[in-house]
Amino acid sequence: MRPVIMDSQTFFRKLGVILALFLLIISIGVPLLLIFWQSIYPEQHLDWLAPIRTIAGHELSGILLQSIWLGVCVVAGSTLFALPLAWIMAKTRLGEHRWVDVILMIPFMTPPYIGSMGWILFMQKGGYLQQWLPGAARWSESFFSFGGMVLIMSLHLFPFLYLLLRDALIRIGGNLEEAGAVHGAGAGYRFRKIILPLLLSSYGMGAMLVFVKTIAEFGTPATFGRRIGYYVMTSEIHKYISSWPIDFGKATSLASVLLSVCLVMWYMQSTVSRRFTYRLVGGKGQRSKRYSLRGSKGAVSALYIGLLLILSVGIPYFSVIAASLMKLRGAGLSIDNLTLDHYKELLSWGSVSLKALGNSLGLSLAASTVAVVLGTGFALTIGKSQGRMQRVIDLFSLLPNTVPGIVMVVGLILFWNAPWMPVTLYNTYGMVVLTYVVLFLPYTVQYVKASFTQIDGTLFQAGQVFGGGPLLILRRILLPLIMPGMLAGWIMTFTIASRELVGSLLILPPSMQTSATYIFAQFEQGQVSLGMAMAVVSVGMTVVLLLMVEAMNSKRKWNAS
Amino acid sequence: MKGLKLGKKSTLLLLTSVMSLSLFGCGSAPSGDSVKPAQDNSQPSESGTAAASGKLVLYSAGPQKLADNIVSGFEAKTGVKVEMFQGTTGKILARMEAEKSNPVADVVILASLPSAQALKADGLTLPYPEAANADKLNKDWSDAEGNYFSTSASALGIVYNTNLVSTPPQSWADLGLPEWKDAVNIPDPTLSGSALDFITGYLSVKGDAGWELFESYKANGTAMAGANQEALDPVITGAKSMVAAGVDYMAYSAKAKGEPLDIVYPAEGTVVSPRPAAILKSSPNVDNAKAFIDYLLSDEAQKLVAEAYLIPGREDVEAEGRTNLKDIPVFKVDWSWMNDHGDETAARFSEVFK
Questions:
Q1: Is the Cβ–Cβ distance between A508 and A362 less than 8 Å?
Q2: Are residues B78 and B223 in the same domain?
Q3: Which of A34, A548, B82, B279 is most buried (most C-beta within 10 Å)?
Q4: Per-residue pLDDT reduced to its tens digit, A69-112
Q5: Taking the CB of residue A278, how many other CB atoms lie within 10 A of it?
Q6: Looking at the structure, do residues B226 and B347 belong to the same domain, yes or no?
Q7: Quick one: closest CA in B to A363, which residue?
Q8: Residues 254-313, chain A: which have Cβ within 8 Å of B?
Q9: Minimal CA separation from B126 to chain A, in Å
Q10: Contact A455, A481 (CB under 8 A)
């Protein structure tokens, strides 16, 4: 190899790494450090032991174990939901129904507390289920338990895992399995020896995301968990942040415990995925085989998808829509208690609610676009995380996902509102976009990384051999191959940003609302029906937008083939 | 290996182009937004009371309709543009804490008196003893030196679902009877300032023996359920029958809408939870803030308070559509004891109910 190329290569690599590190340190590292500084510098003097005292002063071990146990159970639960679904959608004809994917995104678009509220309204004493079936009282008792909480959270989070697993299964393609079959391997053996090892790295990533999301989740513990008396770390942290006396120091001490747990998880996951990463996307044409399921197998698969859709979308949304249509919440389900007034109030021109919807849309579009551009850059820098620097970038870009959102947001405020900052971004539109980007950057990074690590280097080599310049290679080889990952990251960021609550509550400039803070305010004000109507409208809007993206995307694929 | 490196090279090219793009993006996209605020943020904080800037930043807890009405009334009267952040007392205090090094708010309205006392004790409030009509306020709830003004208040009672409860309990102790097993909610005092006021107020009267009441609640299956509205909602839908220490104005406004709700104030007495407003010492628009306090104490704003089913802070203004303050049996509570013992009471209460 010519040394000149080597030089420019190392130069570009160094430049990329330095740039990535710089951006990550400014946007994530420094704010978290400021938070940590608050926890050891509480009363204008340095006190290294303050966090340790806080931790020791709590019966923390019990709560920490409860958090971890919840995380483990939810990972198990979402695997149960996601794995069969991913197989059906990747390998059978049923997978050609792309609308299922969009519907499966609905749990994401739903703020977790709305989803839990839906379940609670459905199952509670005198709830919708009991209004139909008075005999269901026994079910509701067994539902309000730890198992019910795991069910709700798994149903909320399994799409993460599903998307990753499905993409991985599609990339595995049919060839390898056929090769196995030719050599006489049975279906079970093929699954164990071919599919499973190839899936492991994607599964590890997804499982870690689900675990971390679960133990950093606040909505469900705050609504459902409080009701059944199951307390987790986030409830403790929120206590210090949202009720008098406010003590960020103590909150951050507890947050650092959570952070350590997540770091251990991250380390385990990255070890596993480094051992089990394979180059699946090579130069040979991909032919994915789809089984056409007939008879009972097809029926079972369709039934499975149907049941999953009912559980994850049907029941919560039945409650949400019912609640949004009610004249009097005390009067129960009946035709003469229905009204569209809440929607009329919501959608009247120039109303606060319409402005909130517009804000949500604009903010999440801006944030998801910036996040995809940055996240793709980071993911490509990280590459296969061989160097130490790359792994540091990997860790940094994952941090916002492991720190409870509210802690991250407080750090951002401390940093961007500091008196010594030359530019006060705080209390502007830009600050909100920045917050969303920082909070949701990990999704793009993870998704793009997942597709990038599976591309075989020979593809770029081939491009080079045929005289393609770097730009051509980028445009014709790299971008098309990582496009699905980028798109998934964009969609994910957009969906989650459009319903982000915890950060928005703290960071939005005064007198600016998004749909999520509007819903929350309505709940606080006792206008539950209005809040639920807003949930329906904003989720509906997001679904329409995603359907449009999906339609454009499938057209693009058709053109390419 | 070679292919890998080539791959790297192209990706790094992409990366650098992407980075520079995004850097430009970061620099230019928000600049239209951020440059201007940066300027007017730095100027007022240095030149202090530039009332000419014509704006006021208000952080307000409590019923949003009321806050909206007050804000539009004030804007119409003075022409000052109000930017409002609406949230619970806890959210507002958290926001203030986060902005500590570079505060933005001029006036806060909280839903808990001890929080305002704490703000004063920390030296965060700006006294305004000359406020018009301040002499007509209830003396117990407002600061003699003008650090905070309780411009409205709510009383706590037993809120019940009229479909489920035909003979409402008449005393706090009744909620511990087997008749009401598993049927009662109580708001979480760490989230609801008024619930904390009730609990500390009750204890300040009854002493340590007061805990027996809450222990009997727990033994009877009473659930601690979030902030006020979260505790009330299951009662509206019929999942629970009653809220202990429920905020009355929420009950009155839901009842006015037609929901099957009503409220009783136990004859032995209850606690009234005042809602103080204060000017912050760090206020960049002091003159506007003072004008806003004057407006809060005016006849017009007090009328708006009354229309929101709250108890007006001024003793000479009558309440509307609800029980007047003088007809509510009130405990002789000790506010300074309550302020000193808030944290430990909330902690012990959570311990009892966990």
A1: no
A2: no
A3: B279
A4: 999 999 999 999 998 898 888 878 777 777 788 788 788 778 88
A5: 15
A6: yes
A7: B30
A8: none
A9: 20
A10: yes
